[in-house]
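Revision sheet: structure tokens.
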Amino acid sequence: MARRRREEAEVRDIARQRVRWLFELADRVFERDPALADRYVELARLIAMRVRVRIPRDLRRRFCHSCGCLLKPGVNCRVRLAKRRSPHLAITCLRCGYVHRIPYKG
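Predicted:
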């Protein structure tokens, strides 16, 4: 039983490393080939879902949750601070129009 848990922990650790690596590759490749960068993000999400690993918060905020593209402010997304209702950061994907809202204390 303990051996199986250890193996699962190793698999999850490897998956976390690969998710981070794929996001780094997506950042490097984005300027030359945005479609390939989107594919890397898709692969990272699939790996995380398959192994049931949470994608870290800093990486979760860097892709569109609707169309799955890698978000680069000023290139394919718009970032705004909104103060109405509750203060939040609004990240709008310019490809699909999805708005990701992140609350902050202001």
